[in-house]
Amino acid sequence: MKRHDVLGTSTWAWLILLVFVAACSSEAPQGSPPTSLSRDDYTDRLRAMWLAECIANWTGLVTENMRRGPPFFTDEDWGTRKGNPEMNGGVIDFVFQTPWGADDDTDIEYIYLDAMVRQGGTELGPEEIREAWLNHIEPGSYVWVSNNEARNLMGAPIYTLPPSTSLLAANDQSLMIDAQLTTEIFGALAPGMPERALILSDLPIRVTASGFAAHASQFYAALYSLAAVAGPGQTVRQRILWMVETARSLIPDTSKTADVIDFVLEDYLGNPDVDDWERTRDAVAERYQLNDEENGFKYIGFAESSINLATGLIALLYGQGDIRRTIQIGSLSGWDSDNGTATMGGLLGLMLGSDAIHAAFPDVELSDYYDILRTRMGFEPPHCMDWHPNCLDTFTDMAERMIPLVEMEILAGGGDVDEKRGVWSLPRIDYKDLSAEKNPLTKLDRSSANNRLLRIGDVPKISWSGILFVLSGPSGDGGSEIADGLEFDFSGVDRRLPVRGIVPMFLGFPGKQYHALVLPWGETIEVSVTWQEPLTLQGVRFIEGPPHVLGGLAGAFNSLTVNVQVGNNWIEVEGPPSSGEPDPSTAFEVVEWDLSLPVEATGVRLVGSLTESAWFVTVAELEGIL
Questions:
Q1: What is the CATH number of the domain that holds 118?
Q2: SS3 for 417?
């Protein structure tokens, strides 16, 4: 007998409709994410996050920087002495410590945790971040690449505040990996709330990352947020795929980061051999390193964002939730192999909890102690046991200090905290409604008039008056850097910019110049950026350049006024800057003026009178705000 003869046509129509509705439910993954969490369970998972991150970090350090290109390590190299001889005797194998030493995969997150606990809130401001970095990070000590640049900028006599520490005009290392290993914690503070995770991590990410590197860090923060709610009743592999696909939805399609995620995921899903992770790693090397220019990309070096995002994702996908296998793959994958490995180890710890980590290493007594003083200074050891003078803290205490911050976020998001039962009701999130439109960096990118103009082919025209000459760096001509759109380009497109690379950076060579150096004629200069078709402006944005140029001290503007061009007329913008009066003690300051009403404009102009000591000034960007 046919089924429709039993159930009836109309009944089957209703069943099909119900199945369709269930399949389209925005609260999925299948099995639905939990609407509540146990405080004790999540505390345990936070502890496991720190523990697993340290296991993965120290295991990955054995192979860090050992294979920057072919021939790469493979599974056959596990257990051999082909690693760094200064780490674990060169043996590529799991590394365990008592206590666990801090490293850059965990220590800056520890600094952020300490700062948040001290201020009693999760949103750190520019001054709070600068103070934390200066108090706890010694210049040149266990700090590299973009983190090193940011620390130097924050500690200079005329200092730079975040997020300007990540502007390409200030930090030409901001497309490196750094923020991918310093900001995952903000996702853990927002369980099941990936949009909120992006807001919390926004400024910490932009301490050191710009463009697609910032997107990669956002992807990681979103993964950590989603780890709290990834589908009960599903296999770990299904949960991981849901997390990756959901976090990916927050990244703009134009970004190199999106290309990396899509490429790795497609190759993984199309691979008939789930153990052949080397196939995808080798394909990544071909696309983003060996044939980068042909594919529209620029490979920068072994510590760059994209290549290491790919290896971390390969370890997560092919590891399929097996913590040992994930760490093995990450450690063997090449390039900066400790960082992505540490991130994914921590992610699995947050997903699976302490029991899973201990079950993965049943014959090892896993230490709970963490020695932050190995790499960072200025912490007093309130939690240290007497038997180890350098041991500062424990993962257990670190997790417990995170809980009040997590509960703040749950309450702020509309959830509930049941103190008696120790249960949290999580905010209801429509995961299928997540998109790059809600990404704070997308909104920032769309506020840039220079970016809008460049993308529609209306190249901005720069005009100067009151100057003897303007000196451009290798990235521009005639001061064109001031309208190149780089400073707020969060499309994530790989513009193949000239940057120093790793070796010149370590030798202290100067960076590329993404600002204009101007020698004035008199006491006032004018600079304008104009275009052909009108744009609706909400304001004007000016970014100053560096204070120290060519061994001298650049003069500051004594006063600033801005104008917008409406028709054939220049109209002065009334009132002080909405961002506050410029501070002569800071560099690369972003100064913004709001218009009382939106206007259809074809240009913006800056008029600046100079201090008496100024014999030149620097300008990084001038643009309208959309």
A1: 1.10.4080.10
A2: strand
